[in-house]
């Protein structure tokens, strides 16, 4: 692969067919990336007489223009390469990225399905099995104080009097 070099942006001609593919949202994303980490991949250009013709890297070029750059890093490719450049989908790095994204999507879908399943089980469990309500005076009622249960023995005289008043008994 040819060595990357710096080229003046104003000297690079963009074919009309490529200009139709400009996506402003992509330019904004690329410009933000260039501001944060710099231009990571050079554009591809070919020589056509005295001018430079863009082969690949339209959004990188437009992002650099939007950022006010006067030069861009690129590589000069031969006209044969420009005409027979491999389709984006045929490149191994693009295929690897596509497979990675597909795996991540599958993992995300599996996680969401598991979360929905667990939420469904929790919701079904809450409606199918009613919770027992504690009854007044039940010894298993952890909230009831020992002096207020019917079966509890009073520990003091005042507890016995309170118990007798509550049960309608005489003291």
Topology readout:
Blueprint: E1 5-8, E2 12-13, H1 16-19, H2 24-37, E3 43-48, E4 51-56, H3 58-66, E5 71-76, H4 79-83, H5 92-128, H6 157-166
Q: Could you explain how this protein is built, in words?
A:
The protein has 6 helices and 5 strands; from the N terminus they run E-E-H-H-E-E-H-E-H-H-H. The protein has 171 residues and is an alpha/beta fold. A 5-stranded mixed β-sheet has the order 1-5-3-4-2, with helices on one face. The protein has helices at residues 16-19, 24-37, 58-66, 79-83, 92-128, 157-166, and strands at 5-8, 12-13, 43-48, 51-56, 71-76.
- Report the radius of gyration as a whole number of Å: 38 Å
Give the overall shape. rod-shaped
SSE string, helix = H, strand = E? EEHHEEHEHHH
End-to-end span in angstroms? 106 Å
Largest sheet: number of strands, sense, barrel closure: 5 strands, mixed
As an assembly, this protein is single chain
Helix content: 40-55%
Could you give the count of β-strands? 5
Please work out how many helical segments DSSP would assign.
Answer: 6
Question: Pairing-aware structural class of the strands and helices?
Answer: alpha/beta
Return residue spans where pLDDT drops below 50 for at least 5 consecutive residues: none
For the largest sheet, list the strands in their spatial order: 1-5-3-4-2
Mean pLDDT metric? 77
**What percent of residues are in strands?**
5-15%
């Amino acid at each position: 692969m040819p060595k990357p070099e710096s080229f003046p942006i104003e000297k690079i001609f963009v074919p009309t067919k490529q200009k139709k593919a400009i996506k402003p949202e992509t330019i904004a994303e690329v410009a933000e990336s260039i501001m944060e980490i710099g231009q990571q991949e050079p554009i591809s250009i070919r020589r056509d007489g005295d001018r430079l013709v863009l082969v690949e890297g339209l959004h990188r070029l437009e992002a650099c223009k939007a950022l006010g750059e006067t030069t861009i890093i690129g590589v000069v490719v031969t006209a044969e390469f420009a005409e027979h450049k491999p389709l984006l989908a045929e490149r191994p790095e693009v295929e690897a990225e596509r497979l990675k994204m597909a795996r991540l999507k599958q993992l995300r879908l599996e996680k969401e399905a598991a979360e929905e399943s667990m939420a469904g089980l929790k919701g079904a469990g809450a409606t199918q099995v009613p919770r027992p309500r504690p009854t007044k005076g039940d010894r298993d009622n952890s909230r009831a104080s020992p002096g207020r249960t019917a079966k509890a023995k009073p520990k003091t005289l005042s507890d016995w009097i309170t118990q007798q008043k509550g049960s309608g008994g005489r003291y």
